[in-house]
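Researcher: Quick test of sequence recovery. Tokens follow.
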């Protein structure tokens, strides 16, 4: 799949070559090809399937934020978890993330939902499943993506440089349960979805805690404030 003209940073291509050569990835590629042949619309676009990895090289990862599935509405997903292009309505979970940023750091909510600037600074915005069919939530689960993104997390876990893992919700916490918390900072809370945000998401100061940990280890903190004019895809 990595050879199909899809953008992928070389550091990840090398680290994940065994995964790309595995039978399960060949099966996943065949599944996606069949879905396209059947006329189904898949999001994000093919060149953006590995966008999180392309924007955040392996050696640059300082923070990992885990999501589950891409947004399944037309034009929403663009390869980064919780993120949408400028001009797309900000999803409810991201609105709550912005509320927490305001409470934690005093950063006013952005007028858009494009988190590309975080990714370019070393925040790996990784969904567990990297594709979805239009209007069909969770439609590409259990076809191989989960195994692939487990390998991505394992690669980060093995890095010598300490990393901050922000795990919102039980799904993310189970997926990254193997992360070595003696070396990395693991921040856990409920998901920012309106269904669960008020049961433990707010008030945990994820962003300031992440930056304090990075500074403590001699690493550059993240500028969480998003630019008014985000990078266009």
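Model:
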């Amino acid at each position: 799949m990595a050879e199909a003209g899809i953008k992928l940073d070389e550091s990840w291509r090398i680290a994940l070559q065994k995964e790309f050569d595995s039978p399960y990835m060949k099966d996943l590629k065949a599944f996606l090809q069949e879905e396209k042949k059947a006329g189904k619309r898949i999001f994000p676009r093919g060149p953006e399937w590995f966008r999180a990895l392309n924007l955040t090289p392996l050696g640059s990862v300082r923070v990992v934020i885990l999501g589950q599935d891409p947004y399944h509405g037309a034009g929403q997903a663009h390869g980064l978890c919780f993120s949408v292009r400028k001009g797309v309505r900000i999803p409810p979970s991201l609105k709550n993330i912005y509320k927490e940023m305001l409470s934690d750091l005093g950063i006013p909510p952005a007028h858009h939902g494009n988190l590309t600037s975080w990714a370019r600074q070393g925040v790996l915005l990784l969904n567990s499943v990297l594709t979805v069919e239009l209007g069909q939530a969770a439609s590409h689960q259990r076809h191989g993506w989960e195994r692939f993104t487990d390998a991505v997390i394992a690669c980060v876990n093995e890095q010598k440089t300490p990393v901050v893992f922000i795990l919102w919700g039980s799904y993310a916490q189970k997926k990254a349960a193997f992360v070595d918390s003696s070396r990395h900072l693991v921040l856990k809370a409920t998901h920012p979805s309106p269904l669960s945000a008020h049961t433990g998401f707010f008030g945990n100061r994820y962003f300031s805690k992440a930056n304090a940990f990075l500074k403590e280890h001699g690493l550059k903190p993240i500028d969480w404030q998003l630019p008014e004019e985000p990078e266009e895809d």
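The mean pLDDT is 95.
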